[in-house]
Amino acid sequence: FRNFCISLPGRFQIRNAVVALASASILEHQYGFKLTESRMRRGLLEAFWPGRFEIVKRGSRTFVLDGAHNGASMNEAAAAFNSFFPSKKKIVILGTSREKNLTAILKPLLPVTSSFIVTKSNNPRAQEPKFVLETLSKMGYKKPALWFMNLKEALTTVNKLDLRNTVILITGSLFLVGEARELLKCQKFI
Q1: Alpha-carbon separation of residue 53 from 50, 81, 147 (angstroms)
Q2: What is the pLDDT of residue 190?
Q3: pLDDT at 70
Q4: Which residues, other chains included, contact 24 with Cβ-Cβ below 8 Å and sequence gap of 6+?
Q5: Which pLDDT score, from 0 to 100, does residue 7 have?
Q6: Residue 79 DSSP symbol
Q7: Neighbour tally for 14: CB within 10 Å
Q8: pLDDT given at position 188
Q9: Contact 5, 45 (CB under 8 A)
Q10: How far apart are CA 116 and CA 110, in angstroms?
């Protein structure tokens, strides 16, 4: 396969696309599936993965929604966040689940964000924002950090701030990203 294009942003998506093409080739050659090159090309161009480095523009605001929820996925999300928006100020809205390795999730974000807004999803497994702030402090984080008990409060506050030349990453939990997708559809957060 040569010169394929993908619509999903991030270098990790290139690796995923290569795996998908290799799998398609195996299905075709070993199991007789009829997969044309044009269909594979179209599939990669039309692929959309909600909540995986999904860029959402609302008025003057740019949000990136990424369900990264472990160290490996957060390494990729942070690298893509920094790469796609090198000259922008970056804010992270973060909410995780209690059973996650918080240090591994936070570590890749520390060098790329100018401030954290910590919150939690509407899920019984959600980590308390206070614990996330304590962990940030133990990791030596000295930049601004705010916390809110839910994403709606966090987004309401973000909407009131002057955030020109700023991009906001909402991450740490698929539950949080799902809530963000719903809230950002509302006119209130434009």
Answers
A1: 8, 8, 23
A2: 55
A3: 97
A4: 33, 35, 40
A5: 76
A6: H
A7: 13
A8: 63
A9: yes
A10: 9
